[in-house]
Amino acid sequence: MRQGEIWGLTWQDVYLGKCFVRLHDTKNGSKRDVPLSKEAIRLLELLPRKAGNTNQTSSAVIFGRALELANIKELTFHDTRHEALTRLARKLKVLDLAAW
What we know:
about 100 residues; mainly alpha; three-stranded antiparallel sheet; about 10% strand
C-alpha cells in the first residue's frame, strides 16, 4: 500500500474478521481490497479505535528513527512496497500476484 492510502484509512475500512482493508482513494481512482497478513491483523488489533494525533509528517519522523535504531541507511517508506512485493513473489504465482 502507498503511504497516502494508509493515511486515508479509517476503522470503517478495516475488516479484521475478513482479513482485508478497503482502499477508496487509490492512484488509479478505483476501489481495491488489500489482504492482511496475520501479523498485520495482530498489529492493527493493538491500535486504539479512536482518532489519534499522529499524521503523515510525524510518521515519517517515526519511520526515520526506527531506521536509525535498526542501523538501516538509504531506505525510504516507498522502498518497503518493493520489499513486500519481492517477498510475495516468492510465495505466489506471478499471475496471482499480478491480479492481486
